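INFO batch 0412 | record 1 of 1 | parsing
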Amino acid sequence: MKKLILLLLFISCNNQSNENDEPILNQQTVEVYLLNTLNDSRGYCIDMKGYKTNADINNSLQAHSCYSYQGEVSVDQGFDISKITNEEFYIRHFKVCMEAEKIEESSALNLNTCDKNNKQKFILQSDGKIQPKENLNLCLTVSENFSEGGGGSPVHLIRALSLENCNDALSSYQKWGIRTKP
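INFO prediction complete | emitting tokens
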């Protein structure tokens, strides 16, 4: 009985929310960021379109100024590290997985219910490349072009994400890392 009470207390504490009604993310939640900060000192993270808990799972993913400069990993940029090691980029708060539109060059990255289909299997390589398991010639790539977002100081920046042929000349746009804290 004591073990059951402790377990329930543990689960209850892990499901608490802060005053902004955002879940508290645990140490298993990481942001996936571009190693090269390009033109934004905050760096670029894989991000959902929309703002934090109001992000829209029906839109494609983008590269956006990392929110960790605000002191924590945001729910719309928070991936489960244990799933990444199992070839799945899972956004814990929204319970969705990154999925390639197609496993071919110029394909967008979307979100979908996790079902372990081949378009959802990605490998984070030791050299920082994120590649679809079905075609290791492709890399997750941020666009060379950027636009300004709707907030932040300085204003947040946004770049499109797509699968492109891996190319050493594009390594600044194709090498990623993961981190739990800013």
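INFO post-check: The chain has a mean pLDDT of 86.
INFO record closed
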